[in-house]
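Question thread 4412

I'm putting together a teaching handout and wanted feedback from people who do this every day. The idea is simple: show students a protein as raw sequence, then show them the structure tokens that encode its fold, then repeat with a second protein so they can compare. Below is the first pair exactly as I plan to print it.
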Amino acid sequence: MIDEKFVLLALLLNTYGDLKYLVATIKGQIKPNKVTWLFWAIAPMVAFSAEISKGVGWASIMTLSVGLNPLLVFFATFINKKAEWKITLFDMICGLLSLFGIVLWVMTSDANLAIFFAILADFFAGVPTLIKSYYHPETENASPFIFACLAAIITLATIKTWDFAHYGFPVAIFVFCSIFVLLIKFKMGNFVRRVL
């Protein structure tokens, strides 16, 4: 275990990756899915609130940054119209499922359930971008996902109390982002389609 203040390094890494993505969005080099990035902003803020209520402390800083930075990306998609990915009915359904996860958090007073529902909401929010990354990795940038993986590892290394409130969201971020890195950076979707 490392000192819990190392989450500040995790925050910097995560922010750096997101800023690279933000710049690429503004320049129209990538095409973020608005539904994904909006709900990727909302769901972590729910988890952050729950973590604070459970006294998670420093480790919750990563969750906060995972919520604030996507909000900037979401707004950036309105700046450059070339950075817009077409929103489909499937995207909207995933957005509604994500919203449903957030509503379930509001209905419960249990912080662990809130974190679980926030993770579920985060997952559903990411499905449209997951599918887009599988078929069109060239429309994405792996930077935020690479740095979020590193930030999650650092955050996990700072945890003193190993319960779901402390490790749930960082583990989910690590798993989700690792999949995105494989799909975007290493174009695993192309490989899987060739093999199948």
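The second pair follows. I'd like the answer to focus on this one:
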Amino acid sequence: MQIAEIQKALQEEKLDGWLFFDHHQRDPLAYRILGLGSGRLATRRWYYFIPAQGEPRGLVHAIESGALDGLPGEMRVYSSWARQTDGISFLLDGSKRVAMQYSPNCAIPYVSMVDGGTLELVRGTGVEIVSSANLVQLFDARWSAEQLEMHLEAGRRVDRVRADAFRKIGAALKAGETITEWQMNRFIREGFEKAGLVTDHGPIVAVNANMSDPHYEPQPEGSSPIRPKDAVLIDLWAKLDKPGAVFYDVTWTGYCGSDPPAALQKVFEVVTGGRDRAIEFVKHAISRHQLIHGFEVDDVTRGYIDKEGYGEYFVHRTGHSIGEEVHGTSANMDNLETHDDRRIIARTCFSIEPGVYLPDFGIRSEVNMYIGPEEAQVTGEIQRELIRIG
């Protein structure tokens, strides 16, 4: 744990400290940031406070007095309700504004880990609680150089599996064989396993109207066959099977034939146009050291798609943070589902994935962007044309 770096960030944010709290391991962010093993017993509440200046201090229950072993600072022990309340006052003595894993109106649910009752308890000491969202970005979401390399390697492997999947569909069509969304889902998962990749669920393989469900996932029963003149969307995400590995997450679309319908081609061009405008906006800002926020990237993409007449069919945010989980804890590109006003900072990664979802088909185009100290980059292949399958 980087006490000095955390305290420097607290001073820059004009905060008096950062209060961590957990019960039954409800806050995985706390364990990662504090460097606590996730296997620790937590049947009783513990608190740990890092002040902007001075020594950290903790509060643990008598039954689990070793809950914070290994962390620096004085540890007070409580057992009764009254002693717990006194202990929180001890932790926060002299503080006025403290950060916790909280988000006003739950605008950023990824960091809104502390329950309302605990917030009331802490506010009862007289402090103001602010969101730790910007701090979480700094101390949980930034990648190491090794993680970036693992992401790039995962991308190369995932892109090969993705290309193989479209070729597999094409080969089945040429041979006159029936192949389903579910069979392609299994083909991709087998490809991941052979390539040393792991994932938590998915992938999405969707045909025609199923493409218009952004979280569609085929099942063994009832999945659609893939036939000539069908549109196909494949969304796949995976990471290397190594500790600390981070995800790579992309979406590509194709048409089973050589001449896509004009409506399909038009929507593809609108979606990729919105994607490319977001990419250029981020690249331009980062290269000039301009401060930008997640909601601004969403505005750029959404503004273009809306101008083209498809705004009502773009029903989700432009992109999400990417980390050791496919949905990470840094800024999302979002001014629809939430107003994400977190800064986009160096050493973080996120998706750019606009989509337009019509009754008969949907198109999404997804790339990943990594923010370096001097420039932003798309970390894998970029789809420029609809794939002509078979």
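Top answer:
Good format. For the second protein you could add a caption like this: The mean pLDDT is 96. The radius of gyration is 24 Å.
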